[in-house]
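URGENT: need a sanity check before tomorrow's submission.

F., can you look over the WD40 repeat domain-containing protein record below? I want to be sure the sequence and structure line up before it goes out.
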Amino acid sequence: MVCQIAEIYGFNINAPERTKEALFIFCFILSGEKVIDIGIDWLKLGYIENKLLKVGTKALMIYGLGHGACFYYEYKDKFEFSLIPPDDLLNKLRQERDNYFPDDVSEATVKQKLIVEISIASYNNPDPKVRINAISQALNYGDDGLNLLLQALTTDESADVKDAAYNLLYSKYGKLIESVNAYQTQKSLTSWELEYTLTGHSDSVGSVAFSPDGRTLASGSDDSTIKLWDVANQEEIVTLTGHSNDVNSVAFSPDGRTLASGSRDDTIKLWDVATGREIVTLTGHSSTVYAVAFSPDGRTLASGSADNTIKLWDVATGRSITTLTGHSDWVWSIAFSPDGRTLASGSGDEDIKLWDVATGREIATLTGHSDSVWSVAFSPDGRTLASGSGDETIKLWDVTTQEEIVTLNGYSPVFSPDGRTLASRSGDGTIKLWDVATRREIATLNSSHINSVAFSPDGRALASGSGDGTIKIWRGR
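C-alpha cells as predicted:
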C-alpha cells in the first residue's frame, strides 16, 4: 500500500533503507500531528538511513507520503480496513500529485501543511471529541482552517463541536460576529406582521405551544378544552375534551407524540397527539395545576400547582416520582434547563427557585421581584434564566452565579430558539420583542389581552393566545 502511494508521487522505495523511511513517514503521519515534529526532526538528523536523498527530495517525499496518509486516514474510517487502498483513493491521489511543493521547500513548511491536512482529515472522525481536537488549532491554518471552522459551525451534528467552533471564531472575530448578529436580529425581527387568526375557543386562551416539528399548534382554554391546529392549513385538527375546568398549560413532549395539559380541575392529562385520545390522568395535586413541562429527554414531566408544590412524574408509568416543597405560595411556572439537570420554578411568594432534578433538592432561591412570578424560561444555551412577574418586570439571571443581569418591562418572557430574541406580553396588551444581547426593544406587535406567547421551532413564527378566545400567528419577514 505504501509503495503504491509512493509511486504515485514518483518515489521508488524498493531499496530497503528507503522502504523503512517511507513506512516511518507514513506511520508517523497516521499517528497525528502530535508526533509530526518528532518524525521530521528525526529525518533531518538522519536517525533513519536516508543519506541518498537530497534535502529537497526528502521534503517532497515527506509531503507526498504524508498527503497520501491523510487521504488514507479518511478512508480507513469509512471502509473496512484493508492493506490494499481503494481504487478511488489512488485515482484521487494521481489527480493531485502535481500540487505539492517545489524541490527547495523547507521541512518546516511541509510540517505545517501536513498538520493542516491531518486536522482536516481527522475532522471526518465520528467521535465529536476527535473533531473538536481537529479544529482546536484551526485559526493557525489560514483559509483552510477558517473554512474548517465554518463547516463545523454550520453543519456538524454535535452541539459540542458547534460550540467549540463558535468559541474559536469568537476569540478572533468577536466584534465582527456581534455586529453580524445584531444586524441579522434587527433585519429579521423588526418586520413582524400578523399572518392569520385562529378562532374556535369560547373563552380565554391561557396557553399555546408549537409541536417540535412546527406543524401543529396546541391551545389550552378556560372553556375546558384543548385544540390542536394545523399551522400550514390554518385550520383546527381536533378538540381534546376531558378536563372539567380551565386548561392553564399545555406542553408537547420532545418527540411530539404526547401532549400534557394542566387544569384548574387539579389534574394533569397526557394525550396521544396522533389520535387525540387521552392516555392517562395524573392525580396528586390538591389544587389547580398552573404549569406543566417535559424534561428534554421526555421521560419526566414536571407540574406546578396552587398547592405550593412541584411534582415530578414518570411519563412511562404515570407515577409520581417526587414532590418538591419550598415555595410558600402558588407555583405559577416551571421550566427545565436544556440539559435537564435543573428545574426552575416561579411562585406567588415572589421567588424563583432552582432545583436539582436528580436529587429533588433546592439549589438556590433568586429574589428581586415584588409580585408573583408568573413565568420562567431558560435560554437555549442554559446560561440565562428569564423571569416575568406581576410587578410588570422581566428579569434576566445568570444561572451560574445566580445574579441578576438586567431588568426589562413586561410579563411572561420566552426565548427564541436561537436565544437572540426574547418575546413577552406587555401590560398594554401588546407583544414586545427584545434583543437579548443589547437588551433593547426591537419590535412591538399590537394586539389585546395577550395571555401567552410561543415561538415556532424555526423562530420565524410567533403564536399568541388572547383573552377573547383567539390565537394569532405572527410571521417574521
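My own read: Residues 182 and 226 are 38 Å apart (CA to CA). The mean pLDDT is 80. If you see anything odd, call me.
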